[in-house]
Structures are given as C-alpha cells and as structure tokens.
Design brief:
Layout: H1 16-21, E1 25-29, H2 32-43, E2 53-57, H3 84-93, E3 100-105, E4 125-130, E5 135-136, H4 141-146, E6 152-156, E7 158-159, E8 177-183, H5 187-193, E9 201-207, H6 208-211, H7 224-230, E10 240-247, E11 268-272, H8 279-285, E12 292-296, H9 300-304, E13 315-316, E14 318-321, E15 327-328, E16 331-332
Helix pairs in contact: 2-3, 5-7
Length: 333
C-alpha cells in the first residue's frame, strides 16, 4: 500500500524574503546596474539593513561597466562617469549597523565625499583597494570621519604623499590595526601613523618597484628603519609587527634593522631577512614577549641554523621561513 503523505510531511520551499532577511554578508559587483539594483532591493525591504559585512568588487574589464576607462564610449572628463562614488555612498548610508566593508574599486573620481561625519558608527573594519588609480592614505578621509569608531584599516597599493595637510584631520583615534599591502609610503606618513594612540598591530609590505617612480622624491620614501624610529612612541604597546617585501627588490644601500629590543610588548614578528643586519643578533635582541617569529627570504639551510636558544628568556612557539615553507614548533627555549 502506498504511503499517504500527510500535509505535515510536505516540505515548503524556503521563503526567499526570509532568506534575504537572514543575510549577514552582502557581496555586490561595483557596476552601475548592480549597485542600482541592490540599492533598490534594500529600499524595497527585500535585503535587510542589518547586514554586518559588505563586499564590493569592481571588474575593470567588464564590457558593460560604464566606468570602464577602456570603453571607447567613456569620456573620463564627464562628471557622470564616476557613478561608483555616489552609489556607494548611498549604499553605505542604507546599512546602519554594518561592521566590515571590503571595497575593491576602480578608483577614478572621488569616493565617500557624500558620507556624513559619524554616519557609520558601527563600522570597525575597512579594506580598501583602487584598481585603476593610485590610492593615497588621504583618499579615505571622508570614510574615516563617517566611521568614527574604526579599529582596523587595510590598504592595498597605497602610495606616498608628502603633503602634511593631507594627513591632518584624518580622524583615526580608535585605530588598533593598520595594514599596507604592496605599498610605498613617505616618511611623513609613517611618522603620522606613529602618533596613533591605540595602534597595536602594524603590517607593511613594501613595493620597491613603485619607489623607483618617485625620482626626486625617493629620499622621502620610508624604509624599515624609518618605521622603527617613527614607532618609538608605541614601543610599550605594539604587539604585532610585520615588515616584508611585497614587490621588487630593496636597494643595496637600504638601512638595516639591528634590534627590536625596545618594543617590549611584541608577540608576533614577521620580518624580511633582507631588512636585518645580522639575523642571529636580531633574534637574540627580541623581547621575551615574542612567541611567533616568521623570517622571509632565507633558504631552509639557513633557517634551520637559526639559534633561538641563545636567548634563554624568550618563549618562541613558532619560527618559520615563508620562502621555503620550513617551520618548527620550538617550544620553551
């Protein structure tokens, strides 16, 4: 006898509106039509305004993107070309509890200028990248003012700007973590970062190819030792420090790091061996608080000869080399 299906056995398909209302992460392509559609969906109540994470990605090669500079119909001098900025500002303003924004944008035109100060009080994490234009630290000023409680900033392909006035009033009082990927900053900017009262983690991967483009301003490009000098006021609070090579090769006359002994709170150190004068001496100088050390750019033979035991008060839980994938759990040494 065939089993008679009872009404309670019938599984209703999930309600689309309910699914959207439970959405925690929103990822949208940053082209005019996609942004327009998602904004309309939010305004119509189809997408929740309680989203915590926003991911916006631009495809510069999208043939349908009206902002594509390679599009023969696109006139870069036309004020209507950069629809990304106003639409992105509008989208952010519709998300009152957003906590994290990862924005990978074309980069031509201005962004965030329409955001009102303190309009994004819940935004804690920002990841910003321009794909078709050089990104400067000051480009995020309006966004930083809107996100008054910002704690983590990650910038990719950020270039130096030696205008002090561009660093004024960036409004970063609560920043704890700053990351620069494949970037080339000026000393004046590193000195500014050294004044951030709550900064406890700093990562900087250097772009040495971009450095060659500065010509007469090359002397103003920050070196790894400039970072340590500028961060001297943070020596009692900095817990994570990463100084690595992102792109290109450093110049032969690069000033080298001898010691991190003054940074007494460090827990994690990630360092390019090329930035260090003598690796053994450098390791012996590490404060006893360090429990993770990653050395970049040495072969496995050299890595395995690293003598962390020469610093008896240090507890290193992990030491490794990024280039050869060698690592070891050292334990108490």
């Amino acid at each position: 006898m065939d089993h008679e299906q009872k009404p309670n056995d019938i599984h209703e398909p999930p309600n689309v509106a309910d699914t959207l209302q439970s959405l925690a992460v929103l990822e949208v392509n940053c082209v005019h039509q996609d942004l327009t559609n998602i904004i309309k969906s939010i305004e119509d109540g189809l997408v929740p305004t309680v989203l915590k994470v926003l991911v916006v990605k631009t495809d510069p090669d999208d043939p349908d993107d009206p902002d594509d500079p390679d599009d023969s119909d696109t006139n870069m001098d036309d004020d209507d070309n950069n629809d990304e900025g106003p639409l992105l500002n509008h989208l952010l303003s519709l998300l009152p509890v957003v906590e994290e924004a990862s924005l990978h944008l074309c980069g031509h035109g201005e962004y965030f200028y329409q955001l009102k100060p303190r309009s994004l009080p819940t935004l804690k994490i920002v990841n910003l990248e321009f794909k078709l234009q050089l990104l400067r630290l000051s480009d995020g000023r309006s966004l930083f003012h809107a996100a008054s409680n910002l704690e983590t900033v990650e910038l990719t392909k950020c270039v130096g700007n030696n205008w002090l006035r561009d660093l004024e009033n960036l409004n970063l009082p609560n920043i704890k973590r700053f990351k620069f990927n494949n970037s080339c900053l000026f000393t004046i900017e590193i000195e500014y970062l050294g004044t951030l009262a709550k900064l406890c983690a700093f990562k900087y991967s250097f772009d040495f190819i971009m450095e060659h483009l500065y010509n007469q301003d090359r002397e103003q490009v920050a070196t790894p030792t400039d970072v340590l000098t500028a961060f001297e006021p943070l020596k009692h609070q900095l817990e994570e420090l990463e100084l690595v090579i992102g792109i290109g090769s450093p110049p032969e006359n690069l000033p080298l790091i001898e010691s991190l002994a003054n940074f007494e709170r460090l827990r994690l150190v990630s360092i390019a061996a090329r930035f260090v004068k003598d690796l053994q001496t450098f390791i012996r100088s590490l404060p006893s608080s360090v429990n993770e050390l990653l050395v970049h750019g040495k072969d496995s033979r050299v890595c395995k000869e690293l003598d962390v035991s020469t610093h008896g008060s240090m507890t290193v839980k992990h030491i490794g080399c990024s280039s050869c994938q060698w690592s070891a759990e050292v334990g108490d040494v």
